[in-house]
Amino acid sequence: xxxxxxxxxxxxxxxxxxxxxxxxxxxxxxxxxxxxxxxxxxxxxxxxxxxxxxxxxxxxxxxxxxxxxxxxxxxxxxxxxxxxxxxxxxxxxxxxxxxxxxxxxxxxxxxxxxxxxxxxxxxxxxxxxxxxxxxxxxxxxxxxxxxxxxxxxxxxxxxxxxxxxxxxxxxxxxxxxxxxxxxxxxxxxxxxxxxxxxxxxxxxxxxxxxxxxxxxxxxxxxxxxxxxxxxxxxxxxxxxxxxxxxxxxxxxxxxxxxxxxxxxxxxxxxxxxxxxxxxxxxxxxxxxxxxxxxxxxxxxxxxxxxxxxxxxxxxxxxxxxxxxxxxxxxxxxxxxxxxxxxxxxxxxxxxxxxxxxxxxxxxxxxxxxxxxxxxxxxxxxxxxxxxxxxxxxxxxxxxxxxxxxxxxxxxxxxxxxxxxxxxxxxxxxxxxxxxxxxxxxxxxxxxxxxxxxxxxxxxxxxxxxxxxxxxxxxxxxxxxxxxxxxxxxxxxxxxxxxxxxxxxxxxxxxxxxxxxx
Length: 517
Hints:
Blueprint: H1 12-31, H2 38-44, H3 50-62, H4 64-78, H5 80-99, H6 104-114, H7 120-131, H8 134-170, H9 177-199, H10 205-208, H11 224-249, E1 252-253, E2 256-257, H12 261-292, H13 302-333, H14 348-360, H15 362-375, H16 379-397, E3 401-406, E4 412-416, H17 421-452, H18 457-481, H19 484-505
Antiparallel strand pairs: 1-2, 3-4
Helix pairs in contact: 1-7, 1-8, 1-9, 3-6, 3-11, 3-13, 3-18, 4-5, 4-7, 4-18, 5-6, 5-7, 5-9, 7-8, 7-18, 8-9, 8-14, 8-15, 8-17, 11-12, 11-18, 13-14, 13-17, 13-18, 13-19, 14-17, 15-16, 15-17, 16-17, 16-19
């Protein structure tokens, strides 16, 4: 009996695929190791507040925006093996610093730098595209992304138990047990980063002679209209950083703003200069080529890049925001739920396990999205169907809880929309169903990206990936300003906008079901 394709480890490309999703898994486990133990941190540190947790969640995705753009260019120049190994090794440093931070400033700075580990995703996209033909790319990218993305769910499922049961109760490390759990994450990143360098190659031997290293510079476009689109779509990448600085600047520490007005003006000025520099460099790279004329066989549709930016903003951006807040959402919303012995049912560990259901379905939903994109013979239609499902799913999640009585702090805490354990079961079903569409849409997105322009897969994946983080920053800022129900409704609106944008601007890529590139 023939082995399933993706379990045939005699093939080098299959071994590379599995080594690479493990590297991605490590990055996501570390990237989202704070959410499952947020309530544990609040109980352990008397100076930490729920608002601090929300800001740390925003910091966690902030620098991933420029990191994904930079990494996207670096992998086109140096290859994915070196870049992925370096990222894993370097990010072990802020992971350990965060674990032992003793002030909010230390935690925020460490979390900002640690957010760069989220750039690992786009590295694997390039690695997988180097090893698999178009007819298999959706499934291969889906398996890579789905199983790697499961790292966030695995963190939610295991970290509370490992920190509170194993380290605190069994080994008696006390209230600092969560710190040692996070520090161990950093050590795993360091070790696997070294291992990955020796386990994989950038591409098959028969492709090395055809490989051309790119330059770490802005994307090249093939029309003046595409050039305008590129410059317009580049602005939110720095605009999100400005929004993040504004939100952090509103935090008061001992009566003082975390970032004073003068500091904010400096940050805004730097971001404007960065954008202006990007515009100048982009024009320098593209105008000479456009004046000479672009051969027809080198042209590609930049509108598809923009459309996929929007889909990743709406699906992966929403996912990053949701997995950052979902454990606390379930723990607080269902805190009044008690069992037969009148003991609370919803503990930190149970909330983490339930919340992990949103990311758990990555194991099959994201590969399924890539598989359907490969087999339905119309990648655009597959993409649109998934985006419609996301819009409906987030609307339903907005009805899991409702506003309860006003607490002593003047805030309406959420309570379950209906009483009883049965509603918790329904809430989990709604969460999982929504997640299936979210993860599937991510798989469908990256089943299309390698088809747009093979020479710039890294840069296109980097930009789309960065837009996922722009979405996460925007959604988390919104979450910090509005109630949870409104947050879910806004996420639904974002998916609806992306659906309409894809309908008009996403084009079915040519040759996307060919045997070879």
